[in-house]
Amino acid sequence: MPFINPDFMLTNDTARELYHGSAENMPIIDYHCHLVPQQIAENIQFRDITQLWLVDGHYGDHYKWRQMRGNGVSEDYLTGGGRSSWETFEKWAETMPYLMRNPLYHWTQLELARVFGIYKILKPETAREIYEECNAKLATPEFRGQALIRRFNVETVCTTDDPADDLRWHRQIAANPFGTKVIPAWRPDKAMAIEDPEAYKAYIARLGEAAGMEIRSYRDLMEALAKRHDFFASMGCKLSDHGLETFYAADYTQSEIDTIFKQVLSGVFVGEEDIDKFRSAFLHDAAVMDAEAGWAQQFHIGAIRNNNSKMFLNVGPDTGYDAIHDLPTAAAGHRFLDRLASEDKLAKTILYCLNPKDNEVFSTMAYTFNDGTFPGKMQFGAAWWFLDQEDGMRKQLNSLSALGLLSRFVGMLTDSRSFISYPRHEYFRRILCDVLGKDVEDGKLPVSEMDTIKRMVSDICYNNAKLYFGF
Fold it and tell me: For 132, which of 22, 118, 146, 250 is 20 to 30 Å away at the CA?
């Protein structure tokens, strides 16, 4: 039996029944990813498996890059661009035997099996054969970008888009549908990034141009964002996303925020206290905008970014030099959500933590603000980034189960730039079914309620997300 077999990761009979009967064939709603809309619109044809899997211009799989560097692979095989596609792929194959117990070992084999029908183990001895077989298939229409998405029964994809983006590629996709709905998601982080006045001023000029107005004040900023928010809504957007080190909920006055904004636009570097106040005001006002539009909002909390300063200068952000932060989150998070709840302006909200120490913190924080208006309104989100591996997923499921309603969970997402990351949904579904199956077989859940448990699995895999986001 091949390593990737029908019962992969399913360790008991009930898990196998749940997966094959209730999870395996459910559609996918990928409500948070980083696919490049232009590549979807142009139905990209990848030149080879290296472009698809490892290096695509400035983009690439920073998960893989981190481990290849750890295995002694030099930068010219990765971001340096000095090596051929085969040479880079060969280095990945050389890394694979050292990846056992890392999730990339499983994901790599799942993607080979599910996308290319290849069940051989990738290693130096099989590398050339696998490389050539993948490349031959990628040269055919059945392996272009849109077909790769359709292959996994993906019903909806939400990309991650800046308020200043013109969304022209989304318009092109909408005008030429291919069977998967692709809609933008609102990511306004740059509009609060006042720590670098020069970069911020350039961004504000770009945002003003997109909104058709000059932005001279904080009030102008909110007006411009409201215009763009309406435009995103007209393009089908139903959710926002924020990537933050922690929550921000400092006390401030409107006059302070106005002054801080004008100082930054004039090129003045402001102190940490003023940055904290500005972020607090911005996040609150952005959240009110989401609530009034009926959107859901997502908060990805806990990354410390660009920590290797030498490599940041050489190759830029999002290249594998980020890590898990350990800032406090509870006090500011509760203050932030409480302000919104007190004003009846708290939208449906998903909280994601990157530090596993915060699992129970986020679970209890979310459920403190459920108000009975919508089932599962406040969500403790899926295991994310460094945690979207077996141990992280099981811990997230266990924390949510212990402190909330697992049955109302909106399930997995890819959070990926890759067209073939959808086996991560399968990976999650197998783990979910294994957790529940073991509970049944251990007598912790009643066998007599299998119909309810099967429905729970289908809901978590698909139905809950479809209802929650209104797709």
Answer: 146
